[in-house]
Amino acid sequence: MTTTHERPVGFGRMARKEDARFVRGHGTYVDDVRLPGMLHGAILRSPLAHARIVSIDTSAAEAHPKVKAVITGETLAGLGLAWMPTLSYDTEAVLATDKVRFQGQEVAFVVAEDRYAARDALELIDVEYEPLPAVVDARRALDPDAPLIRDDKDHQTDNHIFDWSAGDEERTDAVFEAADVVVEQDMLYPRVHPAPLETCGTVADMDAITGKLTVWSTTQAPHAHRTIYAMVAGIPEHKIRIISPDIGGGFGNKVGIYPGYVCAVVGSIVTGKPVKWVEDRSENLMSTSFARDYHMHGGIAATNDGKILGLRVQVTADHGAFNATAQPTKFPAGFFGVFTGSYDLSAAHCAVTGVYTNKAPGGVAYACSFRVTEAVYLVERMVDLLADRLGTDPAELRMRNLLRPEQFPYHTQTGWEYDSGDYPRALRQAMDIAHYEDLRREQAEKRERGELMGIGVSFFTEAVGAGPRKHMDILGLGMADGAELRVHPTGKAVLRISVQSQGQGHETTFAQIVSEELGIPAEDVEVVHGDTDQTPFGLGTYGSRSTPVSGAATAMVARKVRERAKIVASAMLEVSPDDLEWEKGRWHVAGDPDQGRNMTEIALAAHSDLELPEGVEGQLDATCVYNPPNLTFPFGAYICVADVDPDTGVVKVRRFVAVDDCGNRINPTIVEGQVHGGLADGLGMALMQVIAFDEEGNCLGGSFMDYLLPTSVECPSWELGETVTPSPHHPIGAKGIGESATVGSPAAVVNAVVDALKPLGVHHVDMPLTPAAVWRAAQGRPLRTDLAIT
Amino acid sequence: MQVPAAFQYERAASLEQAIELLTRYGPEARVVAGGHSLLPMMKLRLAQPEALIDINGLGELALIRVDGHDLAVGAMVRHAELLASPVVGEHFPILRDAERVIADPLVRNRGTVGGSLCQADPSEDLSAAFSALRATLVAQGPGGRRTIGIRDFFLGPYETALNDAELLVEIRVPIRSHASAYRKVERRVGDWAVVAAGAVLEISGGVVTEAGIGLTAVGAPRFVAEGAEDFLRGRRPDEDVFAEAGRIASQECRPTADQRGPVDYKRHLAGELTTRALRTAAARAQGQEA
Amino acid sequence: MRITVTVNGEQCTRDVEPRLLLVHFLRDELGLTGTHWGCDTSNCGVCTVWLDGTPVKSCTVLAVMADGHEVSTVEGLAHGAELDPVQQGFVACHGLQCGFCTPGMMMTARWLLDHNADPSEEDIREAVSGQMCRCTGYENIVRSIRWAAEHGGGARTTDTATEPAPAREEEVRA
């Protein structure tokens, strides 16, 4: 282990600046915020998945001595706030007025003196429901007799949300028609939940005198939240301040605005006091953004000698009761279009149909890079199925079909331009670390003895850093990010960024970017983030976009400051700026390195009485908005080794090798940490995580007793490798790493387990690979993992 | 986070006082020891007792003793203490096996042996392990002490033979020459059992003279597989016999489907794990750790 | 009900409802917000503190149960300005990202090292298996605790540095 005590100027391993507070227990998370006179909110939720609300009686709750207000949908309707826009131009009930549409939907909000009393008062609210049949199975949502969920919407006559497609259907069908081999498979990427350990919550404080609303909130996108609050509530945007303090993990769960946040704001307006609302774990799992829930039918076409020709897939996408998915407007299926993966194909086509069901809304969250996770899973399972059919080694088949370095920038069949890559090198490295040939020999020996050992390979291409404004917006807000940098007179600096950390270490890595560009120590750069009053506008941290977008903004703003410093230095040295050369931290006269000024000297001079050229302002600061020209495309090769007990179905992941290429690495220690976490995420999804529903729409994953997260025991010691292929269009050649491992690892785990089960004639098992699911697959009677097991 | 509804809280300073409090509050009172079953249910408001009687102060219930030929485990002994006890490890590997897979280390630091049994959760591990061992439970009530055979203790899910004002004080297991093991399949470490099986074998002259088979999470009546036990008695402890005992055990249980698995899988596991536990116990009887 | 709990060596007396959870007593009554909560079902372990020297999940202990007892939290881990080796290890090995599970992880790590000065990777994984981390994949948590063991972290309380097992087999409080 390389520890992180080195203190580089610029990129390299260094200990995180934020750790000092966290290891002392001095972080400030939303539930740590305590304001004078603060009240506490609690939400009454629907016990039913689909029901008409007949009546709500709040009188007993209102009579509770500690209750200050009870808010219902009717109260909100009076304020025009009963419904709010979702991030996908749908509407979502803040508090239900007409019907409840999923179990756990928000029905009433109680404000009380303390959290215990607020919880007690929920018991005193009497709601009469008229139950309706629920739509649980996405595959049945468009049946003619399916109950209509969104009867609140004019012109909505069924549960259809959208159809979206990419690629050339006709050409793809022709390729399939002519191919030697076609393999098809139904597969489910079940509904999962990001489950950050800190649940979602808000402290809302409306100052009645100044009219200023301050909201401490678990948000990955404080600026977007501010704009949406302004649009929804009609509060002038400059009178809203969103503070995203320390966040206990996000993983996409904290992108959207949840009804509880709006209720807390209304509660503060109504009572004139600050109101805190923090959801409990069941509320988090049952009502906030889920992820995946893609029912896919994939096909792959190839020649007999293993040249992959085409891919096609049809998807039924379960978006729950409200289409609240957070993704760029023009991409209702996110970036699923990159399902062509890392291979050179002749044709590809996908068609996605989004449907409403009586389940929690959301649709994209959880470290998935806007559905790249589903896309990678699809293609990597299909390639393994093809290898199985052809009797070819799956690593060998991939090696034969991977894009070659000289093909970049590569234009895919579905319209993406991959920026850079050396795919075979990454796969070779993974195979070397794993000792792939030895593993295959060991497997053959074990199979002789009837033991089940599997080796799973996956190769992924990520698509991150959304994105070019021309193509990408959320609710009309372009996905560019700002940065502001000011160097103080003594050479210390403050950087203000629009993205927000949920644990990624922005206070360290963004300081390192400035450090790299200006040559001042990272310790001397304060990074301000997560407060809309103190930072420039930007769309926030998700989709692995911090480094690709905001990191680029930071590099660019530092370069602007460097250019200003050049002018100051030229005035100090009384030479033309054109005669100066940059060395890290210092401008000097070209050809005369002794004649120079370092950043500390320049900073002081910039604030001094030094005479500057006409039109050059003093001081040393700059602002920048970075509009990315393209996405960045990190990639990697993963190999998983798993043992399966055939008599119990128990899977043990023994080894996991991950070779990631995220371009240049700002802080390799942090990059590796991101990979470790993503691998555990992927392993969890592959083996145990699922939010299933019974036929009445009851959520069967509503607590950590039922929704299982991996522990230290299930996780192997991750074995990492790296290659570095810089992004050609990114200022520092970085590509982003936040979600790569989550995107790439589930397929490796599933491929390993299916490989282990191969002697039993198993070709596919849907996630999660619980002991029961594995055993039943081995029996030839697979389980439907998204529904109640009967 | 979730919080319990209000209740009266009483701290018992002695066993007698605990029983007095139980008598006074009646059936709406609950005893709290480690609280790791009860408090989560109270937070989720699945349980709303009017009074809690805290027996954490009753040090006399927190002993692991060898009393004559018996191991006596106080009801307030924490899981971690049972796991760490050398005498338990030496004579009752089934308990050590079970404790290693009960919840997680932190829960085991707080949760108690007596609490686990009294909760009578149909997926509880110690209920199966002690049932396989044919433990005797000592209860104390207003009328004094009585003993209850563990196989008469569990009346059904969450239901025991304890009377309202009665308190479990001790679990007694005879120390004799036997071998034992416990095998569990769980979806993830710390989860409740999908299925688990415990086996106790007394072997003399090359044949099984007594057998105990405990099963949890499969609806086995009183957590045991009596038919399999009957079958084992008088037979040679070999692989075929263990396989047949497993088959019988799997037929004796009445699993229900849930997200841990369908009925056929659980039934299969009941047999498989019974066989494995028997195999391990027999190996241990031969002095082999398995 | 009036209770007195010794928290990080300091006696704290408060009037509380019997139903107040220890985690809320620490956070809301004493302002010790380093101890977090993350679930309602005793699964996640981010609320881990010591009760009388043993790590427990403070969301599943009533504050009244701690009356007259000793509680240690993350805020008491450092020795003045000097971080405990466990804290140093977490910084040195990037053992935390969002920091939410970290206090609980470190409390268990401290306890483990007090009882096993040289734990194996497997020992460490077992010790923290009741505590979830969503960020690190546990890799660097394991390394952090090993780092602490290798940097004098195993010897803080020598008088309790024994196996957590009873000394005698008869008539002992196990």
Number of helices of chain C: 5
Number of strands of chain C: 5
Sheet/helix structural class of chain B:
alpha+beta
> Largest chain interface and its two residue counts?
A-C, 63 and 62 residues
- The strands making up the biggest β-sheet of chain B line up spatially as 4-5-10-6-7
Radius of gyration of chain B: 19 Å
Kindly report how far apart the N and C termini of chain B lie.
Answer: 43 Å
Largest sheet of chain B: 5 strands, antiparallel
Strand content of chain C: 5-15%
Structural class of chain C: alpha+beta
Task: Give the strand line-up of the largest sheet of chain C.
Answer: 2-1-5-3-4
Unreliable spans of chain C are 157-174
Tell me what the structure shows:
The complex is a heterotrimer of chains A (790), B (290) and C (174). Chain A is 27% helix and 24% strand. Chain A is of the alpha+beta class. In chain A, the strands form nine sheets. A seven-stranded mixed β-sheet of chain A has the order 3-7-1-14-11-12-13, sandwiched between helices. A five-stranded mixed β-sheet of chain A has the order 9-17-16-15-10, with helices on both faces. Chain A has 18 helices and 32 strands. Chain B has a five-stranded antiparallel β-sheet, with helices on both faces. In chain B, strands 1-3-2 form a three-stranded parallel β-sheet, with helices on one face. In chain B, α5 (93-100) runs antiparallel to α8, α9 runs antiparallel to α10 (239-252) and α10 (239-252) runs antiparallel to α11 (263-285). The longest helix of chain B is centred in the C-terminal third of the chain and has 23 residues, at 263-285. In chain C, α3 crosses α5 (139-150). Classes of the chains: A alpha+beta (790), B alpha+beta (290), C alpha+beta (174). Chains in contact: A-B, A-C, B-C. At the B-C interface, β1, α2, β4, α3 and α6 of B face β4 of C.
Q: Secondary-structure map with pairings?
A:
The complex is a heterotrimer of chains A (790), B (290) and C (174).
Chain A: H1 19-22, E1 39-45, E2 51-57, H2 59-63, E3 67-72, H3 73-79, E4 83-85, E5 91-93, E6 99-100, E7 106-112, H4 115-122, E8 126-131, E9 160-167, H5 169-178, E10 181-189, E11 201-207, E12 212-217, H6 222-233, E13 240-243, H7 259-271, E14 275-278, H8 281-287, E15 294-302, E16 308-318, E17 347-355, H9 372-390, H10 394-401, E18 410-411, E19 417-418, H11 423-434, H12 436-448, E20 452-461, E21 473-474, E22 477-478, E23 481-487, E24 493-497, H13 506-518, E25 525-528, H14 546-573, E26 580-583, E27 586-589, E28 592-598, H15 599-606, E29 621-626, E30 635-644, E31 651-661, H16 668-687, E32 719-722, H17 740-757, H18 771-778
Parallel strand pairs in A: 1-14, 12-13, 16-17, 24-25, 31-32
Antiparallel strand pairs in A: 1-7, 2-6, 2-8, 3-7, 4-5, 9-17, 10-15, 11-12, 11-14, 15-16, 18-19, 20-30, 21-22, 23-24, 23-29, 26-27, 27-28, 30-31
Helix pairs in contact in A: 9-17, 11-12, 13-14, 14-15, 16-17
Chain B: E1 8-11, H1 15-25, E2 29-32, H2 38-43, E3 51-54, E4 64-67, E5 70-74, H3 79-84, H4 86-91, H5 93-100, H6 105-110, H7 113-119, H8 125-132, E6 136-141, E7 144-149, E8 154-156, E9 159-160, E10 167-174, E11 179-186, E12 193-204, E13 207-216, H9 226-232, H10 239-252, H11 263-285
Parallel strand pairs in B: 1-3, 2-3
Antiparallel strand pairs in B: 4-5, 5-10, 6-7, 6-10, 8-9, 11-12, 12-13
Helix pairs in contact in B: 5-8, 9-10, 10-11
Chain C: E1 2-7, E2 10-15, H1 22-29, E3 48-51, E4 54-57, E5 70-72, H2 85-92, H3 102-115, H4 121-127, H5 139-150
InterPro entries (chain B): CO_DH_flav_C (IPR005107), CO_DH_flav_C_dom_sf (IPR036683), Diverse_Substr_Oxidored (IPR051312), FAD-bd_PCMH (IPR016166), FAD-bd_PCMH-like_sf (IPR036318), FAD-bd_PCMH_sub1 (IPR016167), FAD-bd_PCMH_sub2 (IPR016169), Mopterin_DH_FAD-bd (IPR002346)
Keywords (chain B): FAD, Flavoprotein, Oxidoreductase
Protein name (chain B): Xanthine dehydrogenase family protein subunit M
